[in-house]
């Protein structure tokens, strides 16, 4: 099954780039398809890895001997495994006019080791799990249960794949890369974090659950963000308002299937609280990927008052407000938070994403079935 990815890497001649993304999102496949003539170094190959660890200058020697036959950017996969190789890349960009694409799942190890990140000489791209615009007639329940990592979505029975994936990420991305030394505590944190996923994050409660202090928990969440495992969204604030929650963020994992696997969630039908939470997470994934792929990079926030009124997602500092409801029929009482936000801030778009069959408009608020919403999102009609 060949899936045409939405990401575009149209690099000007001579321009280099980093391509980041969680494991198994398809970075290597994407690069091989779009740059078939490129020289390719895969640092997951142990022989290549050991050669470059011992002698990073070997890259320069090899490319010097083939410069006349290089077509397109040179690709280095899993670049974070050999941070010192970036000094060689920098030298060759400046002195040999060779362009590169450095691919990996995390820049955290590079940053911590004070590796050379090329000082703005390379553009940054990110590849996400699959999005609705890449899938013909997306199966919603399959997406929520399997997730949208390509192999997991396609797999008939993804439960074991997801379980192995979660373990591999802990083992390879966090522990083997030395991002934390307290392996038991981080494992407990991973479990505690997953059950508060998509809700307002109480760092003190999570710290108590996994037996570490508040500061360590904040560092653990930062590790998840730096390794692209998840994202924090901050509360929306345009002005000081004592009635609005202003400090506590929410955290979303990068994939709805991974979140389900960690909490042993299995959704059998399109209704209920678990379906609603997964549905909201799915919409968040679409918004995040859309902003990145379209190079819009708008802020995504949430809004909540101390009395409990809430809007799931506020985009671009209030330009659009989006509430996600998984029910097959949404009543006006279900969107009281969005109505209050609309009356107070007057966003250009106020939208309820629903599981209903038909759309409607009620006093400036658009109720859109999720397929219609995603169609409008990816065609640029939402933001």
Provide a brief overview of the structure.
The two termini are 31 Å apart.
In words, what does this structure look like?
- The chain has 383 residues and is α/β, with parallel strands linked by helices.
- It folds into two domains: 16-126, P-loop containing nucleotide triphosphate hydrolases (Rossmann fold); 132-378, no CATH class.
- Helices cover 39% and strands 16% of the residues.
- The chain has helices at residues 27-34, 46-54, 58-64, 85-95, 108-112, 140-146, 150-154, 159-175, 183-195, 203-210, 214-226, 256-262, 273-293, 336-345, 370-378; strands at 16-20, 40-42, 74-77, 100-104, 122-126, 230-233, 250-253, 300-304, 310-315, 320-324, 349-354, 360-362, 365-369.
- Helix 6 packs across helix 12, helix 8 crosses helix 12 and helix 9 (183-195) crosses helix 10.
- The two termini are 31 Å apart.
Provide the spatial order of strands within the biggest beta sheet. 8-9-10-11-13-12
Strand content: 15-25%
The gyration radius over C-alpha positions equals: 22 Å
Instruction: Please estimate the helix content.
Output: 25-40%
**Can you tell me the residue ranges where pLDDT is under 50 for at least 5 consecutive residues?**
none
Structural class: alpha/beta
**What form results from the Cα inertia axes?**
globular
Report the average pLDDT across residues. Answer: 90
Number of domains: 2
- Give the N-terminus to C-terminus distance in angstroms: 31 Å
- Secondary structure tally: strands: 13
Order of helices and strands: EHEHHEHEHEHHHHHHEEHHEEEHEEEH
Sketch the major β-sheet: 6 strands, mixed
Number of helices: 15
